[in-house]
Amino acid sequence: MYLILYVIVPLILDALAMLADVAYVDMLEGDTECHVRFNTPEDAQTVMKSHKDLQIKNNWKYEILTGDNEQRYWQKILVDRQAKLNQPREKKRGTEKLIAKAERMRLEKTQQTSKHIRFSEDN
């Protein structure tokens, strides 16, 4: 079960996670429309039942995708997945790969050591 949200505030996941288990939020940065996937159809129905509260609080409009709209969304998912898989990947071999790995490890280590621990004095 899927919902389309026409949103103004992009705090979708936090708001909906209080009501139901959200599997995925499909939204590009800057978009005002998104698709929310739930783990079960019952979760989508739960969100629909609390429709008035969410709509007033967040100024959202939403609907459950069915029929042709749902099929189009599944096609969009497949196209997006294929586009991601067909992206050219940078191939690193031999010493380049080792140098990149060592650089990542060095960066992680310096980030860990540069953290400051602050203690408050509560007497």
TrEMBL record:
<dbReference type="GO" id="GO:1990904">
    <property type="term" value="C:ribonucleoprotein complex"/>
</dbReference>
<dbReference type="InterPro" id="IPR035979">
    <property type="entry name" value="RBD_domain_sf"/>
</dbReference>
<dbReference type="Pfam" id="PF08777">
    <property type="entry name" value="RRM_3"/>
</dbReference>
<dbReference type="GO" id="GO:0003723">
    <property type="term" value="F:RNA binding"/>
</dbReference>
<dbReference type="InterPro" id="IPR014886">
    <property type="entry name" value="La_xRRM"/>
</dbReference>
<dbReference type="InterPro" id="IPR012677">
    <property type="entry name" value="Nucleotide-bd_a/b_plait_sf"/>
</dbReference>
<keyword id="KW-0694">RNA-binding</keyword>
<keyword id="KW-0732">Signal</keyword>
<feature type="signal peptide">
    <location>
        <begin position="1"/>
        <end position="19"/>
    </location>
</feature>
<feature type="domain" description="XRRM">
    <location>
        <begin position="1"/>
        <end position="104"/>
    </location>
</feature>
<dbReference type="InterPro" id="IPR034910">
    <property type="entry name" value="LARP7_RRM2"/>
</dbReference>
<protein>
    <submittedName>
        <fullName>La ribonucleoprotein 7, transcriptional regulator</fullName>
    </submittedName>
</protein>
